[in-house]
Design goal:
Elements: H1 2-11, H2 35-39, H3 45-63
């Protein structure tokens, strides 16, 4: 402990440079936004059911004026 303290007194504390802005690689990170998940194409029964409900909701919204 004393050696660490002495080292800090003699050499100071060095801080790392801040990282740059976050890189956006264009990938979709959540399942809910992936095309196959939205359309229910990946085979899951619950996904197909949810896709059906999404389609029904989209149809209702498009029919309203």
């Amino acid at each position: 402990m004393a050696d660490d303290f002495q080292d800090i007194l003699e050499n100071g504390i060095s801080f790392k440079k801040a990282s740059g802005p976050k890189k956006d690689d264009g990938k979709v990170k959540t399942k809910a936004k992936k095309k196959k998940y939205i359309t229910g194409a990946h085979g899951s029964g619950s996904a197909r059911q949810k896709a059906k409900y999404r389609q029904q909701r989209a149809n209702r919204k498009s029919q309203k004026h």
